[in-house]
Amino acid sequence: MNALLLAVLTPYLGAALAAWASRHGRLHAAWVAAAVTLIALALITPAALAAFAGETVIHRLPWMPAVGLTLAFRLDGLALLFALLILGIGLLIILYARYYLSERDGMGRFYAYLLLFMGAMLGIVLSENVIQLLVFWELTSLASFLLISYWQHREDARNGARMALTVTGAGGLALLAGFLLLGEMAGSYELSVILASGDTIRAHPGYVPVLILILLGVFTKSAQFPFHFWLPHAMAAPTPVSAYLHSATMVKAGVFLLARLFPALSGTWEWSHLVGGVGLATLLVGAYFALYKHDLKGLLAYSTISHLGLITTLFGIGTELAAVAGVFHIINHATFKAGLFMAAGIIDHECGTRDMRRINGLWRHMPHTATLAMVTAAAMAGVPLVNGFLSKEMFFAEAVSMGTHMRFGWLLPLAVTVAGVFSVAYSIRFIHDVFFNGEPVGLPRTPHEPPRWMKVPVEVLVALCLLVGILPGLTVAPILSVAAGAVLQAPPPAFDLAIWHGWSPALLMSVAALIGGVLVYAGRRPLFALAARWEGRVDARAVYQRLLEALYALAAGVTRRLDTGSLQRLLVLFFASAVVLGAAGLIDGDTPLTGRRPLLPVDGVSLMAAVGLVAAAIASVWLHRRRLTALIVIGAVGLVVSLIFVKFSAPDLALTQLSVEVVTIVLLLLALYFLPQTGPAESSRLRRMRDAVLALAAGGGAAALAWAVLTRPYDTIAGYFLDKSLPEGGGRNVVNVILVDFRGFDTLGEITVLALAALGIYAMLERLQLRAPERDAEGRPWNWDRHPPIMASLTRLLLPLALLTSAFILLRGHNLPGGGFIAGLVTAVALIMQYLANGVAWTHARLPANFHPIIGWGLGLALATGLASWAFDHPFLTSTFGHFDWPVVGEFELASAMAFDLGVYLVVVGATLLILVYLGLMHGASHPTQPAGEGR
Amino acid sequence: MEALLALVIGVLTACGVYLSLRGRTFPVVLGLTLLSYAVNLFLFAMGRLVIGHPPIVSEPAAASADPLPQALVLTAIVIGFAMTAFVIMLALKARAELGNDHVDGRP
């Protein structure tokens, strides 16, 4: 049993369930979401235990083995850590959101989107195949779009969601290209192979392009500079969404990929400079701007950017210990940032605003929440005894050791200390501004403590922060060790998680950052003034907006130039380009037009028929404004076409063409009744000349191409079908055996199209008000005579005979010309004859009025025949046949393909009659003056 | 014979293209009908021309026409009918909603 696949699918199924459950009660969706998350946790538990023991659990489900596509899921230490974060924090978010969302917010929609997102994230971290990983990667972009724009009525939510989708979606495209190249280099799209072939990949000439493409995906997703601007705008989302997306999931997908591909890509000059450089820039930019945000969530957003930069820098440094620290900070950041966002959500919820210039002195109103927020903020600042301190100190230590190996190496510890200073300063601002600093300024509501259970998720996270911060060796060390081992694909290096390491440079940097942070916050006024002056001058978002507007303008310009709303103009462009491209191909080569295949002699009858067809075709063009005449002439063309099929050994085609011709002409006659009987002469002479030249060029090209093909010998795969038709398909008529057996799946698709077209036409005809003309083209009123009795009687007599013929054609189809398509058309023609000869009203009263069930039965039968072969462990639509002996009838053959053909027959009959009869009924409905009781 | 069929395909294509470029819906539908004849014959011609040997297996094995293009064209004919029906209904709908039968919906 593929438990990992089920675990990934569970949230998707749960999403539908949550949406459904919310109809029966506002809070049902929350319960469903929580239950679904617990089920997913339970599903991964067996594999998780194995992964915890150091094993890599891989589950495979062959999908298209011929092209190397497998659904493959993998659970190792890293995937386990992320799965726990996604599901664990997800559970807390579900509880929190239940209290956060107001009465007006649709609970079902929220939880459905949240579960969709959860499933996509689980898919990313549990994927073994990188293409599959990318599919889930894109799904997170889509699901986050839905989540960010959850409050659809707000413009900032819609814009923020669109921006997040554009940036991460573009990154996803780059990532796809990177993955495809990476898979080619490693020789497989499976991670186990890719991770083991790091040396091959790094030595490959395509390494740098692949690295850049993959990093584009990572940086856009993880909001790294200069793609960081989407993240603050995504804060328009409901706070539980921000708490989930920007702590444990969405943005962590990027750094997850850095960790995942660490053994395959890291360890080169390009890696350390690109990843380390971008990470460092993001760290500084995020920390600096976070200080100046007056919006509570804006501050947290830039702080998130900064911490993601920190993690990226650690992976960029590239040593084993740095990777351990990176994984450690992923855990710590997820816990304290989720707690901080939740606290910010509580404050927003209670105060009705997030502006820190107005929210002050909340300590007196909500001391409990304030304490929780202060612990998480301390973790964000990197204060000892909280988890953020430990990973930040490891980061400082790595920066120092990296710095000793480089020219200007002292710059690196300096830069990270400056970032540390700012992160302490913005953390102090978060605490001081919100909970102290005087009294609230004009709040819409009087703040007080939130409901008890809204604080529980924050309390859990705060407990984790403290436990990890005080007792790291007992709590986080085992899972960190397993996850780091999976990142490195090697036993993890010895690391010591302790609060006190003695006097080290890292400790001095921590102390400097704490003191510096306090000093910066104390002297913040001039800095704020400076920042206000620079506000909006350097803005990555403006560049993005300009690029986007240029793209819109370009697209609109191209569309405007090509499409002026005229079909004729578009068709001229279309045919002209087809002619030009085709002619270019013909002129270019020096191969002769005529091939060496021996030609067949022309006989007199064929010549006559061809002359007749050409004359009729030209006549239809000549007479096209006299529409009825043109239609009759086209009927003649169709008849000659079916004669051509007869001549060149295609009896099935001839029968099909003949019967289709009848129904087409009847249909067009019916339709013509509602259209003008004559066309106006409106094209100018010049225009007609242009069209004629284009038509002649197209016709000449088609004729030349047909001639070139017809005169060349060729290889065909027909021999296979001719040989296997009787022994394997059990039929002598190879065309029919191909349709119902060899290519049965195609035919199933085709009858589905036919059924859809018929249903589409039915939908179009519904509530359509057609106005019937009172006079014909010559100005004579329509006459209301009874239907000619001789014809009516004859067709009634002929009906059983015609139906018998079609049954015969259906049954013999496997061995002689015939089959479901032709028999269906013959039946349809026979029934339509009744309508024509006896009138719609008369016939409609005597035939089943509803053709939908016939189509449904036909499709169902064809599908059931295909599915039945599964019951016998054969692939879909495998056919079988046998010979039977009946006393009177003698020996005969039955093939399962005949049941399929019967399905085809029913669909063709149902679809054809549906189209024609419903149009015919319009005639009856369109005649207000029609005398009662008389058919037309 | 090959030249004759090539000629027929060419004439049908030319007439079909000319009618498709007209400004009213009905001739466009007629043009599409002619074009689908041309396309079906063209596809059929990919199997080359054989006289008197339909692809039906007989006891003394003999060379026969290529069944594959025939199977393709057979369904193409039926789908072509569905397409013609759909387009003509669109034309009726446009006439009813817009009050004229110009392809762009404006007289």
Descriptive notes:
The complex is a heterodimer of chains A (936) and B (107). In chain A, a hairpin with a 3-residue loop joins strand 3 and strand 4. In chain A, the strands form 2 sheets. In chain A, strands 1-2 form a two-stranded antiparallel ribbon. Chain A has a two-stranded antiparallel ribbon with strand order 3-4. Chain A is mainly alpha-helical. Chain B contains 3 helices and no strands. The longest helix of chain B is centred in the C-terminal third of the chain and has 32 residues. At the A-B interface, helix 26, helix 27, helix 28, helix 29 and helix 30 of A face helix 1, helix 2 and helix 3 of B.
Question: Which short descriptors sum up this protein?
Answer:
heterodimer; A: 936 residues; mainly alpha; two-stranded antiparallel ribbon; 38 helices; 4 strands; elongated; disordered C terminus; B: 107 residues; 3 helices
In short:
With 936 residues, chain A is mainly α. In chain A, the strands form 2 sheets. Chain A has a two-stranded antiparallel sheet. In chain A, β1 (57-64) and β2 (69-75) form a beta hairpin.
Q: Average pLDDT of chain A, to the nearest integer?
A: 88
Number of helices of chain B: 3
Q: Helix- and strand-based class of chain A?
A: mainly alpha
Major interchain interface with per-chain residue totals: A-B, 113 and 81 residues
Structural class category of chain B: mainly alpha
Uncertain parts of chain B: none
Number of strands of chain B: 0
Write the layout of secondary structure elements.
The complex is a heterodimer of chains A (936) and B (107).
Chain A: H1 3-21, H2 28-52, E1 57-64, E2 69-75, H3 77-100, H4 107-126, H5 130-148, H6 155-186, H7 191-196, H8 198-203, H9 207-221, H10 230-233, H11 239-245, H12 250-260, H13 262-265, H14 269-290, H15 296-317, H16 320-351, H17 367-381, H18 387-403, H19 411-435, H20 452-470, H21 472-475, H22 477-488, H23 505-522, H24 524-534, H25 540-562, H26 567-588, H27 604-622, H28 627-647, H29 651-672, H30 685-710, H31 718-729, H32 734-742, H33 744-765, H34 789-812, H35 820-838, H36 840-846, H37 852-871, E3 881-886, E4 890-895, H38 896-925
Helix pairs in contact in A: 1-2, 1-4, 2-3, 2-4, 3-4, 3-11, 3-16, 3-20, 3-22, 4-5, 5-6, 6-9, 9-12, 9-14, 11-16, 12-15, 14-15, 14-19, 15-16, 15-19, 16-17, 16-18, 16-20, 16-22, 17-19, 17-20, 18-19, 18-20, 18-23, 19-23, 26-30, 27-28, 28-29, 29-35, 29-38, 31-32, 32-33, 33-37, 33-38, 34-35, ...
Chain B: H1 2-20, H2 25-45, H3 67-98
